[in-house]
Amino acid sequence: MPPRLAELVEEFATAPREVVLEMLLEFSDEVPPLPEGLAGHEGMEQVPECQTAFFLKAEVQPDSTVRTWFDCPPEAPTTRAFAGILAEGLAGATTDEILAVPDDLYSRMGLGHAISPLRIRGGTAILARLKRQVREQTE
Q1: Right CATH for 3-33+43-138 from 1.10.760.10, 3.90.1010.10, 3.20.110.20, 3.40.50.720
Q2: Which pick of 14, 67, 110, 123 has the fewest CB atoms within 10 Å?
């Protein structure tokens, strides 16, 4: 797992429930804006498992690092928080690091105690689709 993502997992896992909710809200504000080329979600994949419209794109670079883009409306702070966590935690990560991220990431973070199972399912689907895109580009 990328070092920064491992740090975030530990921070969330050890934080009290009320702090976890605050942390999620902070991460919902950390989603970088989409570049012009992705306006209108051109070339992005929608994640239908999310209750709200969520789009992502992973692009493997020649040095095997992965660039990621996420988009989700501000009215969905929990789902945006997943995007913010992944954007920060995976920044500069290699394909191998991303593919090694555990599928139960959000459970390891202890989010099951703070948010609904439906939201956890959406977050898990985001990670699964991201990893699939990376796998497809490395095969």
Answers
A1: 3.90.1010.10
A2: 14
Collapsing DSSP to helix, strand or coil, 76 comes out as coil
The fraction of the chain above a pLDDT of 90, given in percent, is 81
DSSP-derived secondary structure letter, 66: E
For the stretch 36-62, pLDDT in tens is 999 889 999 999 999 899 999 999 999
Q: Residue 67: what are its φ and ψ, rounded to 5°?
A: -95, 140
Q: What's the CA gap between 25 and 62, in Å, rounded?
A: 34
Distance CA 15, CA 9 (A): 10
Does the predicted TM-score (pTM) go above 0.85? yes
| Distant-in-sequence contacts of 43-49, Cβ < 8 A, 24+ apart | 44/69, 44/71, 45/129, 45/133, 47/122, 47/125, 47/126, 47/129, 49/121, 49/122, 49/124, 49/125
Q: Is the Cβ–Cβ distance between 131 and 99 less than 8 Å?
A: yes
Q: Name 131's bridge partners.
A: none
